[in-house]
Amino acid sequence: MSFESADPGHGHSTAAWTAVTIMLIAFSIGTVAFFFEVAWLVWASAALLLLGLVAGWVMAKAGYGAASVDGSH
What is the pLDDT along the chain (73 residues), one digit of tens a residue? Predict the structure, then answer.
């Protein structure tokens, strides 16, 4: 049984996958750095996490994000 819905994608986009991948890597690096008490690397991973957020937003604005309900980006 198949039907079409107005689902906007909820993350099924290149922008979302890229952002989440960058942020997951940043979080993993930050966790290991925190465990080994490497303060500069913890802060660098926090910056990388923010970079992932910005990268996802920029890619979504460039047209690589999921379409909204009305079909626009």
Answer: 566 666 666 668 999 999 999 999 999 999 999 999 999 999 999 999 999 999 999 999 999 988 754 455 5
Cβ-contact 56, 15 below 8 angstroms? yes
Cα distances (angstroms) measured from residue 9 to each of 14, 33, 52: 11, 34, 20
Distance CA 16, CA 53 (A): 9
- According to DSSP, residue 65 is labeled S
| Prediction pTM value | 0.79
Domain boundaries, the chain: 14-62
